[in-house]
Amino acid sequence: MKNARRRKSFVPVVPVAVNLLLGVPAIVPTFLTWYFLSNGPLAELGWTQRDPNEDDGMLLWLVIVVPVVACFGGIWTLINLWIRRRLFTDAQPYPRPCPYPYWPVSAGLTLAPFLLGAGFG
């Protein structure tokens, strides 16, 4: 009985900790995406300035960015699906945590280390 209560008390902590830890390696795909957007489409719109040393073209960046983002996105999705399926079951008695904001909150927690680094860096 005590073990079940202890397990239920860790339910909201596990996804927060896992997504914050996943946010550390997420710095790489997030930076690559920002670099591609700031030197490509956003520079064409006039919202940012291109890096003057960037003369290789955008196709090379797509070849690098797409696999890195796809690999991290797949790993992130599979881990969060597994966590959500294991911890947030419909058999839990009420009041149970609302499952609807799970994905936006997880994405925000994953982006938090990058945003903190960009803010303080």
Q: What is the N-to-C succession of helices and strands?
A: HHHHHH
Helix content: over 70%
Mean of all residue-level pLDDT scores: 85
Weakly predicted, low-confidence segments: none
What portion of residues belong to β-strands?
under 5%
Specify the number of helices.
6
Tell me how many strands there are.
0
Shape: elongated
Indicate how many domains the architecture comprises: 1
Q: Would you tell me the structural class of the helices and strands?
A: mainly alpha
Please give the alpha-carbon distance between the first and last residues: 48 Å
Instruction: Report the radius of gyration as a whole number of Å.
Output: 19 Å
- Biggest β-sheet: count, sense, barrel? none
Protein name: Integral membrane protein
Keywords: Membrane, Transmembrane, Transmembrane helix
Transmembrane segments: 12-37, 57-79
Organism: Streptomyces durocortorensis
Give the tags:
121 residues; transmembrane helix; Integral membrane protein; elongated; membrane; 0% strand; transmembrane
Layout of strands and helices, then pairs:
Elements: H1 2-9, H2 13-23, H3 27-39, H4 41-44, H5 58-87, H6 102-120
Give structural notes.
With 121 residues, this protein is mainly α. The model has no long low-confidence stretch (mean pLDDT 85). Helix content is 70%, strand content 0%. The longest helix is centred in the middle third of the chain and has 30 residues, at 58-87.
Brief summary:
This protein has 121 residues and is mainly alpha-helical. The chain has helices at 2-9, 13-23, 27-39, 41-44, 58-87, 102-120.
